[in-house]
Every structure is written in structure tokens, then in C-alpha cells.
Amino acid sequence: MLFFDRAMLAMGNILFLIGLTIIIGPAKTLLFFARKQKIKGTAAFFGGLLLILMRWPLIGFCVELYGIMVLFGDFLGTIATFARNIPVVGPYIGLAVDRAGIARRNTDLPV
Q: Which ranges does the record mark as transmembrane (predicted)?
């Protein structure tokens, strides 16, 4: 239960937003969260952060997790492809990815 400490979760979320802003820049960060296709994920992420700050850390974390999945779900195939190349555990991750069907989600992306 110590992992659901309100202060630690809030600090982690703030550092996540700062790190994302440093990596892709402030303008692109705002555009990423303001896209019309991702409005549900943005609302869930910031709503979960608000719930954490209002002393509901478990529920806020679950709402935030949904928001992160909606916002960053498109990148799961890219992450899975990268994880396949890890030397020792890569083949096992590849089997799990093939069974879950994660890598097939990004077949239409040009990356």
C-alpha cells in the first residue's frame, strides 16, 4: 500500500509531465494532450491526477492508468518490437507479444 502514497504518485506524475515536455518540447506536448482523438485519455489522466491530489490515490491511479493507455496505446507495438531485441528475454517477450496481438496494432503507422 505504500506504493499508493499520494505524495509519491503526485510527484511521479509531475516529473513524468516535465520529462515529456523536455523530450518533445512544450508546444508539441500541448498539441499531444490537446488532440481531439485523445481527449478522453487527457481527461482521464488529469482527472486521475486530481483524484490523487484529493486523497483518493487508488481510484486516481486506476483512472490515470486508463488515460495513459488511451494516450500512449499507439506506441505499444513499437515498444514490443524494441523489447524483442533484448538479448536474453527478447524471445520470450516476442512470444507473449504474438499471443497478445500487440504488435499488429501499429500495422498502419508509417514508422
A: 6-27, 39-59
- DSSP tag of 62: H
Check pLDDT > 80 for residue 95.
yes
Q: In terms of pTM, does the model score above 0.70? A: yes
pLDDT at 57 over 70: yes
| CA–CA distance, 87 with 103 (Å, rounded to integer) | 19
Q: What is the DSSP string of 28-97?
A: HHHHHHH-GGGHHHHHHHHHHHHHHHTT-HHHHHHHHHHHHHHHHGGGHHHHHHHHHTSTTTHHHHHHHH
C-alpha cell at 1: 500500500
Q: What gap in Å lies between CA 67 and CA 65, rounded to an integer?
A: 5
